[in-house]
Amino acid sequence: MTQLTPVAVLGASGRMGSEAVKAIRNSPDLTLVAALGRQDPLEELIAAGAQVVVDLTVPESTERNVAFAVEHGLHAVVGTTGWDEKRVAGLRTLLGANPGVGVLIAPNFALGSVLATAFAARAARYFESVELIELHHPDKVDAPSGTAERTAALIAEARRDARMPGSPDATQSARDGARGCDVDGIRVHSVRLRGLVAHQEVLFGGVGEQLTIRHDSFHRESFMPGVLLGIRQVGSHPGLTVGLDGYLDLQA
């Protein structure tokens, strides 16, 4: 008989959390041992016997939640935004003191989105111009999205490696925000519109041609295969992994 992996979900009553609870319950190799809300004590994770914690809470809580998990030897799969460089550095230090514990921070769990970002990074060195448009529901609290920030960072890195100049732009006057925001030299535009879930376009332009790489999530179910992949693999990847692509073979 296969031993089931005991999993706990933080933020279980939220939109993503409720989908994660459902997906874990429907997985034959996992067992849900705790589904906690924002006010529930983290000590319940220990009492429940969780081995993997899925954090789908809010930016104000995620750092404390993950630190608790690491300090108690629990692996963590994190989909909450707010992990800036300072927080990530602190987590790396904490993980250094707790070898064997794995943490995955994923800006996006949709496999198609992860692939689209990887494809965009590959294409970045071949086009003179690039800009991003990310489109989400109006209840999203951050802009630009974590996915757009990571996509822009990977594109910028690829272009630097190829010694490419910045995208041409002759704009001399513009209203605030008209040209989006600058993420590592890449222009990113955020749309917030009722009816949307999570969507992103990367626009590449060259002489006489345009390449668009677009991904659409129409329902939060689209994130669950990536969440389950993270749960199943985080224990085999000690230390910190940023981005679900770290668990995928995208080198070919």
From TrEMBL:
CDD domains: DHDPR_N. GO terms for biological process: diaminopimelate biosynthetic process; lysine biosynthetic process via diaminopimelate. The active site is at H136, K140. It catalyses: (S)-2,3,4,5-tetrahydrodipicolinate + NADP(+) + H2O = (2S,4S)-4-hydroxy-2,3,4,5-tetrahydrodipicolinate + NADPH + H(+); (S)-2,3,4,5-tetrahydrodipicolinate + NAD(+) + H2O = (2S,4S)-4-hydroxy-2,3,4,5-tetrahydrodipicolinate + NADH + H(+). Residues 159-179 are annotated as: Disordered. One of its GO terms (cellular component) is cytosol. Pathway: Amino-acid biosynthesis; L-lysine biosynthesis via DAP pathway; (S)-tetrahydrodipicolinate from L-aspartate: step 4/4. It is found in: Cytoplasm. Residues 6-109 form the Dihydrodipicolinate reductase N-terminal domain. Signal peptide: none annotated. Catalyzes the conversion of 4-hydroxy-tetrahydrodipicolinate (HTPA) to tetrahydrodipicolinate. This is 4-hydroxy-tetrahydrodipicolinate reductase. It comes from Arthrobacter pigmenti. The lineage of its organism: Bacteria, Bacillati, Actinomycetota, Actinomycetes, Micrococcales.
